[in-house]
Amino acid sequence: MRVLIDTNVLISAALNPDGVAFQAYRKAASYPNHGLICEQNVDELKRVFNKKFPDKTIALDRFLAVALMTLELVPVSSEERDVEGQIRDADDRPILRAAIEAGADILVTGDKDFLESGVTKPAILTPSEFVNWK
């Protein structure tokens, strides 16, 4: 499965290596899965950590160094897709677009805008749902 991991899951995984988000990250990055993140994720991670967790930016740098060795960094296309209109938050739409462009089977997120969107391809799962997925 090709699995794109949303920013909120990556933040939780970076902050708590014992949590469900880290388990989801590890599963996405492990065979037989193929983990993906997009450029938007990396930008958001850095922005959130600089604003909310400035004392933990070194931990983020370490996490990203490992993550970028195990996950594929995919681009975000500038060409919008019709399905993006199902996502309430316009800032989240590039992440869905990247998932679609990269052929992701699953998008792992805790974001209600994704979870309540009705988007079915890729499948949108919480970290817990993904950890317990087949």
If you had to describe this structure to a student in words, what would you say it looks like?
- The chain has 134 residues and is an alpha/beta fold.
- It is built from 7 helices and 5 strands, in the order βααβααβαβαβα.
- The chain has helices spanning 7-15, 20-28, 39-52, 57-70, 93-101, 112-115, 127-131; strands at 2-5, 34-38, 72-74, 106-108, 123-125.
- It has a 5-stranded parallel beta sheet with strand order 3-2-1-4-5.
- β4, α6 and β5 (123-125) form a beta-alpha-beta unit.
- α1 (7-15) packs across α2 and α1 packs across α3.
- It is globular and about 40 Å long.
- The model has no long low-confidence stretch (mean pLDDT 92).
Largest sheet: 5 strands, parallel
Rounded mean pLDDT score: 92
List low-confidence stretches: none
* Beta-strand residue percentage: 5-15%
Strand order of the largest sheet: 3-2-1-4-5
Radius of gyration: 14 Å
How many strands?
Answer: 5
Q: Specify the helix fraction band.
A: 40-55%
Would you tell me the structural class of the helices and strands? alpha/beta
- N-to-C terminal Cα separation, in Å? 11 Å
| Shape summary | globular
Number of helices: 7
Order of helices and strands: EHHEHHEHEHEH
